[in-house]
Amino acid sequence: MAQRSGILTAGSWCVDNNKTLQVWPSEDTMSTITGLDRQGGGSGSNMAFDLKRLDPDFFVETMGIVGDDSDGQFLIGKCDEAGVKRDRLAMIKGGMTAFTDCFNSLESGKRTHLYFPGVADALSPDDFDFSTTTAKLLHLGLPGAHKTMDGPWGNDSTGWATVLRAAQKAGLKTNLEMVTTTREKVRHFGLSALPHLDLLIVNDFEIGAVADVETRDGLQTLPDKIVEAIHKILELGSVSIAAAHFPEGAIALSRDGSLISVGSVAMPANEIAGVNGAGDAFAAGFLYNWHQAKPIDEALRFGHAVAAASMREVSTTAGVTSVAETLKLAQQWGYRSAPSIKGL
Prior knowledge:
Oligomer: single chain
CATH architecture: 3-Layer(aba) Sandwich
Number of domains: 1
């Protein structure tokens, strides 16, 4: 096979019905929706479209399942519009596509997701075939959102482990996108996947949950605890690079011992429309630079630049723009100081 290139996004595909509210209501009260937006959602969709918005010529392939309803047709159409190779994005006859009603509160800046799994519950390792892909890396997710994948499969504790092992056997590098759920679930899924991962790019809560280290004190991120957690991640699995991102910055550690801390983009608060999809955007920016063998610190900064660009819109991917425009925005807004950690 020729040298591998591009990224295969796989797993979660859903429709995000983004709804902007002035304030999230209490029960038995009403709040007016001030904005509506329909977009693709889930880690497979978000990564695919982010990468194509950054660079239309970058090779992106995807795998997953959708229903043969209007939402499924919408997602297939978005793939074709963006140029995403979607031969293995299967439509399940008579099935309903997974969807999420995403509520964004302007008052609090917080988001609330109401998720309907539909056919996503039936996604299994049988839906993944890596025999013909020419991609360099598999970006897989989301543990906790797929009933069958979340359970045991064969001798594996989860179907996620089965798929990641198969991808590595086929010659792909692997990365796992996680969803912030209960600490116990994140740790369970993370430990199941770690022996079969080459990269792990997650947020501060998720890295701490997998490593069983408290990385937050309330809403405050604890950089030295992130370093402790990342060291444990490398001890527990086969990961060559682990990184955790958070609002103030990002920290990464590679297996050669390189420890890197960078600050996030100092985006003005009045430019932020929503944070939905910012984590996916960070991963897309990081992996795009990783794919081109850029230094880790550059990949972390570009990840934050893409995340900042994405936050200009309520939906997950609409704010992401070209590589050149992303770098221009980051230069315009500047970067925060790198989080202080021991040893740096």
